[in-house]
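During the reporting period the student researcher (J.K.) took over the structure-prediction task from the postdoctoral fellow and processed the backlog of single-chain submissions. One of the processed entries is reproduced below for the supervisory committee.
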Amino acid sequence: MWCDFFSVDEYDAFGAAVDDALGIFGAEGQDIDEGRVELAAGDPVATVYEFPLDLLAARCRASAGEQWPDICARHVMDWAEGEPQRSWLTNSPFDEVENLLDVWLTGKREVAFQGDPDGPDQPFSVRVADGLYASFLAEVPGLKDAPAMRSFVPNSAVCAWNLTAAEVLESGRRRLRRLPPPTWELRTAYIQDDQGGTEATAGVYFASAPSSVSTPVSAWALILDEVTPVVLEPAGLVAVPHRHTLIVGPPCDDDKTRNHHTRAVYHYADQAYEVVADIHRVSPLKYVYRPPGNFRSGREIGQARQPNS
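J.K. obtained the following structure tokens:
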């Protein structure tokens, strides 16, 4: 037996306490004879992992039997809610974790728990623009009591690192610069007139991340003017509809051509936003972008080059 310090009765009682704890998350009914259980955990989407029971069994063995249900419930809840990973990030020097961080863009502030979004356990988020926020996912290594998994960087970690939001954001930019840049595809949109005929064409650029890179291509919006195939001066139109799409409409010299490009960006971005699940969406907004890193949405400037109807 993997925990031979238990008597038969103690082992049965421990198994019952673990099963009740797993039942909180719909994972009851597992055989613990191999010394491990399966549970969904991790960010941004929970994945099923195997968790070792050794430390939990030792904790129970050192405590009174009537405390075992509460001990198991708290321990399993910590697994499911990422407490070991948050603790590791908070207690690790920033130099050790900086290269483990990936930028994660969202259309609203990332919140993992009810309550104050500035609470220590909540994911750290920094506003990039109106309707555009950056959080950070860390590839936390395997720990003594938990397998390797991705976890949002919590506010407590950024506080412990004594970094400002701007410094964490700049760290994300540095990491992006070390990765292979996205590839770009020029797509031609056909602009229709009132009779359904083709009035004009407009070129719109779509970015995709290299197959060797796990970072979503949307993250490159943070260093957009460094990776685009066109110079975004004086301004370009940008959309980040979902995590795996980044759309750029190049600057135009005249109003008519600019309107055609704007209509094309709106069409492609709205279509991309609608066809994906909510977990993959970033923002439905479109942005006028001026280097370096200045996003302004239509809500901020009235109409961000809204296309003529």
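The committee noted the following: The chain has three domains: 8-81, 89-178, 183-301.
J.K. will present the remaining backlog at the next meeting.
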